[in-house]
Model the fold of this input.
Amino acid sequence: DQQVKQNSPSLSVQEGRISILNCDYTNSMFDYFLWYKKYPAEGPTFLISISSIKDKNEDGRFTVFLNKSAKHLSLHIVPSQPGDSAVYFCAASNYNYGGSQGNLIFGKGTKLSVKP
Amino acid sequence: KAGVTQTPRYLIKTRGQQVTLSCSPISGHRSVSWYQQTPGQGLQFLFEYFSETQRNKGNFPGRFSGRQFSNSRSEMNVSTLELGDSALYLCASSPRTGVGNTEAFFGQGTRLTVV
Done:
C-alpha cells in the first residue's frame, strides 16, 4: 500500500520551460514533505521542503506547492536546465509517525529529462 | 562541513554470507537512518537511530540489524545474505533533536551485490 505516489515515471521538458512534478499522498498524518533529486549511483540530494502549515515554499528556481485538502504536492522548476535532468523523489514524514521520531516515506520517483 | 560518508562504496558478497556497512553522519547530527533502494521497490526505510537507540524500524526481516555508537557513527548488518538483498543501501543523517521535522542528508550509498 503506497502512501506516497508519483504517478508519472518520466517527464520530458524543453530547456527554459517549466517542469512540474507531482506527488500524491494518502496518509493525512503526514505533516512534512520533501523533494530530493538523485543521479545514478549517488545518494539523493535534498532540494526543498514544506511544512503542512504552509501551502508554498520557494527557493530560487524551485517552488513546492502543497494542497492539503487534495493531499497533493507539486514541485515547479523554472526555468528548467539540462543539469536538472535526474530522478526526483517526493518524500513525506510525520514527527509522531510510528510513535517515534518518524521516517521518510518515499514515492518511486519521476525521471526528468530537460532537453537543450 | 563534511557530508555523510558511507563505506565501502561497492561490495560483492556470496549468498549466505553476512555483511556490515558503515556510515559516518555529518558532524553534530545525532540521527542516522538507513534506506534500501531497489529498482522495483524504490527507497524503503530500514531503521533510524538516535543517541544510540533504535527509534523506528521499517518492515524488513530480522536479518537486517543496525547499531549506533556514541560518536553517532552507525553500522548496519545483514546476515545470511540472499540474492534479493542486492541493492543500494543509503544512510541519511539529520540534526533532529527530538522536536519537529528536519531534512535528512544522504550519503552516496553502498552498492551491495549478492551472487
Remarks:
- The longest strand of chain B covers residues 42-50.
- Chain B touches chain A at residues 4, 6, 31, 33, 35, 42-45, 48, 50, 55-56, 58, 88, 90, 92, 96, 98-101, 103-109, 111 (CB under 8 Å).
